[in-house]
Amino acid sequence: QVINSLLDLSSSSRTVLPSLSRPANYSHIFYAVMFDAGSTGTRIHVFTFIHTDSEELPVLDNEMFYSTKPGLSAYVDIPEMAAQTVRTMLKVAKNAVPRLEWKRTPVLLRATAGLRLLPAGKAQALLDQVQHVFDESPFFVPDNSVSIMNGTKEGILAWITMNFLTGHLRKETKSTVGILDLGGGSTQITFLPKLKKTIEDVPGADYIARFDALNRTFELYSHSYLGNGQMVARLAVLGALDAEGSCVGLEWRVFRSSCLPKKFRGEWSFGGLTYQVSGDPDGYTGYKTCYQEVLKAVKGIIHQPFELEDNTVFYAFSYYYDVAVDAGLIGDVHGGRLQVRDFKKKAKEACSKTTKRPPAFPFLCMDMTYITCLLKDGFGFKESTVLQLSKKVNNVESSWALGAILDHFYNLNIR
Ligand SMILES: Nc1nc2c(ncn2[C@@H]2O[C@H](COP(=O)(O)OP(=O)(O)O)[C@@H](O)[C@H]2O)c(=O)[nH]1
Predict the structure, then answer these.
(1) Based on the number of CB atoms within 10 Å of its own CB, is 336 exposed (0-12), middle (13-18) or buried (19 or more)?
(2) What is the interface pTM, i.e. ipTM, of the complex?
(3) Which residues are known to be catalytic?
(4) Ligand 1 center from residue 373 Cα (angstroms)
(5) Taking the model in full, what pTM does it have?
(6) Per-residue pLDDT tens digits for 4-50
């Protein structure tokens, strides 16, 4: 059934970007396949580009997208399942790319926080399985086609994607948009500063990144916080970060938090482990108490950029988007604009809700409060700051994947 649904390309997004007309010469069309091996899922993006002769980047004709859960890290002790996942998903690429083009269409996989957080040997065993599947495939397998991507690159590539899709990565444009990406294991912030002081003020070299495109060098403020993704933040708040190594089995331990509904008791799975979780039946609950709990995952960890002016538009996606949908702040399809204070208001609401029935989103108070805390006490955004919540732009996924493919073809010399 999974295979059948994978082969049903109705789930694809055929994207024709604005102001685009197909050139008569079809040899100008090229394809690329990118796998995003994230901590919570694996996704495949099949891009169709049109090469233009100008000095601009190419035009994206369309993207075919498909995703599956869980992420490869959940197969840490059964790596063959990682191979099976990728093999099944490759069928989507075979359907989307004309057979004659397979041999020159590159196939790449980049893994993010899920594999970054595994012991190196175990992560490599998963990557080896994927490499084997690629090598057997009819696609072009470039050198270094399967690897773990570092967090800074993830942020820069997402910035490149969003600025490309919003039309800001052109020769003549001056303004750009910033990005906020909240993954399961890590979170990224990236923007092009207007003030020199923002670059001078950073705590380390891993807060600045550069790349070359359009005959210039872009110097970005960019940082990835490993351990500050939404799911690992849940572990931190629950006090379950090191639970794996403890001598008491996970099935016998209950992880409590004031951020969960008082009478709630349930199971929650992440990274191949299942945790027993519950509210704090005898203690305080509510936004304030929860905020103090989540603050521990943010305070002293997140750097506040010197400049976070209201005149830079920030696009927020991944879990910023998903949690805002769960909270009813935005619709599932179109996203929308939200102020930081909207997250706070909803967090308060979610944390004060008491229902007799099992809640549909037991983690909503924790997730909304974490996001509010990350934005305000973490990065230092004002409550009035407007964020553009987006899952897709012009029908293309808001993700680092497109940026990674542009980097592959155009060697953006990210450093
Ligand atoms: N729509 C969409 N969502 C994505 C994509 N990539 C990641 N996400 C979302 O990102 C979140 C988790 O990111 P993930 O990659 O698992 O975490 P990471 O490993 O910490 O980077 C979830 O909310 C996913 O739905 C994508 O290409 N498209």
Answers:
(1) middle
(2) 0.92
(3) 154
(4) 20
(5) 0.90
(6) 333 333 333 333 343 334 444 444 899 999 999 999 999 999 999 99
